Amino acid sequence: MGQESEALRADIDQRRESMSGTIDAIEDKVVPSRIIERRRTAVRSWVGGAKERVMGSAQVAGDQASSAVSKVSEGMSHATDAVTSAPQQVQRATAGSPLVAGAVAFGVGALVAVLVPETEPEQRAVAAVQPQLAAATDAVKDAGQQALETAKSSAQDAAQELKSSATDHAHEVSGEAKSAASQVRDTAQEGNNSTPS
Question: I need a labelling partner for 157 at 20 to 30 A (CA). Which of 70, 107, 117, 142 fits?
Fold first, then answer.
């Protein structure tokens, strides 16, 4: 009987172990925080794959930059390391943050635009548009100044009208108060005169 109870205990322990793994697996499937984490991971993976399909792998771009720089000179090896690691660093920093990725892309574009010299056609286009921009700027300034003067004049007129109206109402109220006080005084005097002493 002692061996039977030991066998039962061993069987129960084995079933507990088996059920514990099953319960843990079920819990992993139904706990909301784990569900959300699995969804996030799936979405990040999908977005990363889509980004690589559209824009190309950051690793491929880094490798190409590395080989180009190493061909230029040996003395630029430190710069090569920085250039090749930049896409991975940007990718790690912007993972899960599309707004940050967009801001970084915008910043890189602006930097490239500043570093690349203007071409002759761009300079001609700016020279052709410059007088029109100056005229438009002057027109906007004039319109703004006229709007400011009109608003100022309207505000002064409204303030004067309000002051006049307030003064008129104050005189009217003062007159009515004096009239009411006079009536009360007259009524009080009549009451005193008609009462026998």
Answer: 142
Contact (Cβ atoms closer than 8 angstroms) between residue 27 and residue 35: no
Residue 48 CB partners (closer than 8 Å, separation 6+): 95
The CA–CA distances, whole Å, from 96 to 29, 38, 43 equal 23, 14, 9
Residue 63: helix, strand or coil by DSSP?
Answer: helix
**Between the CA atoms of 87, 93, 99 and 102, what dihedral angle is there, to the nearest 10 degrees?**
-10
Looking at this protein, which amino acid is placed at residue 181?
A
- 182 pLDDT exceeds 80? yes
The CA distance from 81 to 90, in Å, is 14
- Burial readout 133-152 (b: 16 or more C-beta within 10 A, e: otherwise): eeeeeeeeeeeeeeeeeeee
Single pTM value for the model:
0.30
Report the C-alpha gap between 183 and 189 in whole angstroms. 10
